[in-house]
Amino acid sequence: LEMAHRLIVMGEAPRAVIAAVECPDPSPKTRWFAERGLLARSGEVRPFGRERNGFVLGEAAVAVVVEPVSALQDRRIRGIYEAGATAEEAWKLSLPDVTSRAYLRAMEAALRRAGRRPEEIGAVVPHGTATPLGDRYEADALHRLFGRGGVPPACALKGWVGHTLGASALLEIVLTLWALEEGFLPGTPTAFPPDPACALPLTREARPLAAVASASTSDAVVVLKTALGFGGFNGAAVLACPSHSASVPASGQGRRREEGGSMRR
């Protein structure tokens, strides 16, 4: 998304199609994850839950079209990509370096590029693979980022669709924007009972859009989506979901927000 955004802003492309697909091989790939204790023994993904014990692999194929807001004319905006950032630490293939704070750095950089403050974020969609170390690492970084104001409403989607690996970030962006467009933020029922050491504001049931929008200081619901990849990759994206009546968020006055790319599924 960030590469497509930059190409459009620089005038190198009028629009971009971004696609991701994952169809895990049921033999070698599954065995690799199983040997490292990453697959859920329970057969259920329980992100940030007290009883979490790994993830379940999923399959996905997803694509979005990104183009300048000005090019949409009367077409409906599904979401606006404001900015993104990555940070790498390359410590272990399947474990994060918890001392590097690379995940926190990626989120801070994404907010800075978007011209956003943490208190402007209305919802968070973390990576949430339901691994004991990974979820705790994410939760700690989120609490550091939002500080005294507290983490805004959150949902973790792998409990619904499994871990779709290379397709997971784009799939979860599309699902989040679709849900907000339909008027709700999904719940995370498999996170219960929750892990008090993570203490993220997840709910069993879906939350109405009004509850999410009230946490945001803009006319659009601003979402922070994060991702952690194998080999020490950390990524974050700031997205805005316009209200049903709006074609462009009135808050889009900042430098990066004026350059934002709209997305169509």
Architecture overview:
The protein has 265 residues and is an alpha+beta fold. The chain contains eight helices and nine strands. The protein has helices at residues 2-9, 28-35, 102-114, 132-146, 158-161, 168-182, 209-213, 255-258, and strands at residues 16-22, 60-68, 79-88, 123-125, 184-185, 207-208, 221-229, 233-241, 261-264. α3 packs across α4. The protein is globular.
Summed up, the helix count is: 8
**Can you tell me the residue ranges where pLDDT is under 50 for at least 5 consecutive residues?**
244-259
**Order of SSEs, N→C?**
HEHEEHEHHHEEHEEHE
What is the radius of gyration computed over CA atoms, rounded to a whole number of angstroms? 18 Å
**What's the shape?**
globular
Share in β-strands: 15-25%
> What separation lies between the terminal Cα atoms?
13 Å
| Structure classification | alpha+beta
Arrangement of strands in the largest sheet: 1-2-9-3-8-7-4
